[in-house]
Amino acid sequence: MRAVTYHGTHDVRVDTVPDPEIVNPRDAIIKVTSTAICGSDLHIYDGVIPGMLTGDILGHEFMGEVVETGRASTLDIGQRVVVPFVIACGSCFFCNKRQYSACDNSNPAEKQDISETAFGRPSSGLFGYSHMTGGYAGGQAEYVRVPFSDVGPVVVPDGLDDEQVLFLSDILPTGWMAADNADIEEGDTVAVWGCGPVGLFAIQSALLMGAHQVIAIDHYPNRLALARKLGAEIIDYRQTDVREALTEMTGGIGPDAVIDAVGMESHGFAVDNILDTLKQTVGIGADRAHALRQAILACRKGGRISMPGVYGGLVDKFPLGALMEKGLQLRTGQTHVQRYSHDLLKRIEAGDIDTTFLISHRLPLEEAPRGYKNFKDNQDEWTKVVLRPGG
Asked: Most exposed: 10, 66, 105, 292, by fewest CB within 10 Å?
């Protein structure tokens, strides 16, 4: 089959690789009909995610048709399904608490050392996201093996197109959980750093949860325009001092909740970000956390911080004093996709959530390298890339 594979920093290719096979009774094989490039795929593309090997198949946002099942799978051949990027067994201590992204059984024992050393406990398994998270082949391919297929995949009702449900795999529940983690109350002001796909879905979710005012912060005009269309007020951080603007827009007290949808690769020429960029470039495990620092400082006293942005390394110059002295709450984590997917599917069916507005480009799978390059280099125009195997 054909698949998008990793060959080093800024080098992805479409190769012919062996077809996947059923390994365990709970497996299913999916013929991929739609897949997408995620902002967190760019962290791999930029070479800042450890544990990647040449030839690894990329992609964790995908859906398709069931073509083969193990004897313990609950799926039927021919069903259309969306597959969560988090692989979860559904029965361990964490899955029973609906903390699916902390699953203890999905990352094989021989792969757990990297994340256990780095984070103190092993990570769960993720599709297409390094051997630190299990080394599973991703879904930017013609076919993919789905472990624990009786737990994660969501069967798509008739009448919904791929593009209406594809993002249930990751960015929609990630944006929703970002707003959920912000504990939004009726009438709140919420500031969101980053108007990429997760940031845009976080904005949409915050408004649905009752936020009175949502303020979007970015520097790409088209992405800010998308945020404005959703109902957000906007700040272009290259034109405006963000903290001064937020203070003015909130009557002097700061936002009730802040959401960092940027993660480990902040942009901009702030001094702290320049130093972080130098450290990240020489490979000493530093994250570029300028957006998070700014969010912590901007948040009102007693406010809440939600951090869906991906971080994987170390950070200095962290405003720990502000976090404590202002009494802030911080919630973060990989998304518990399975917790949210069925409710979000109902909201899509009811027309409460639009998932298609941010798609800017649709490409055949064979053009994935062009998609990656432009999604990284032309982020204003390339807001979301959907790939179609055989397209």
From this structure: 10
Which residue pairs, CB below 8 angstroms and at least 24 apart, start in 371-380? 371/37, 372/12, 372/37, 372/41, 372/42, 372/45, 373/10, 375/37, 375/42, 376/10, 376/42, 376/45, 376/46, 379/196, 379/220, 379/223, 380/220, 380/221, 380/222, 380/223
CB atoms within 10 A of CB 373: 14
The answer to whether residues 290 and 311 touch, using CB atoms and an 8 Å cutoff, is: no
Q: How far apart are CA 93 and CA 68, in angstroms?
A: 29
Give the CA distances from residue 277 to residues 48, 74, 285, in Å, rounded to whole numbers and listed in that order: 11, 47, 11
- Helices marked H in 282-355: 290-298, 320-325, 337-349
Q: Give which of 259, 251, 157, 160 is closest to 202, Cα–Cα.
A: 259
Reference 276, options 284, 295, 322, 49; nearest CA is 284
- 255: tokens are 């936002």
Are 206 and 192 within 8 A, CB to CB?
Answer: yes
Distance CA 199, CA 127 (A): 22
Q: How many CA atoms lie within 13 A of 56 on its CB side?
A: 29
What is the C-alpha separation between 147 and 85, in angstroms, rounded? 11
pLDDT in tens, 80-137: 999 999 999 999 999 999 999 999 999 998 888 888 988 899 999 999 999 999 999 9
- Contact between 86 and 126 under an 8 Å Cβ cutoff? The reply is yes
Partners of 31 in beta bridges: 65, 143
What's the CA angle centered on 355, arms 349 and 358, to 5 degrees?
A: 165
The CA distance from 77 to 80, in Å, is 9
Predicted TM-score (pTM) of the model is 0.94
Run of H or E residues at 233: strand 233-236
- Counting every residue written for the chain, the total comes to 391
Rounded Cα distance between 290 and 309, Å, is 12
User: Do the beta carbons of residue 353 and residue 341 sit within 8 Å?
Assistant: no
Q: How distant is the alpha carbon of residue 252 from its chain centre?
A: 32
- Residue type at position 297: L
Structural Rg of the chain based on CA atoms = 20
CA angle, 60 then 367 then 153, to 5°: 25
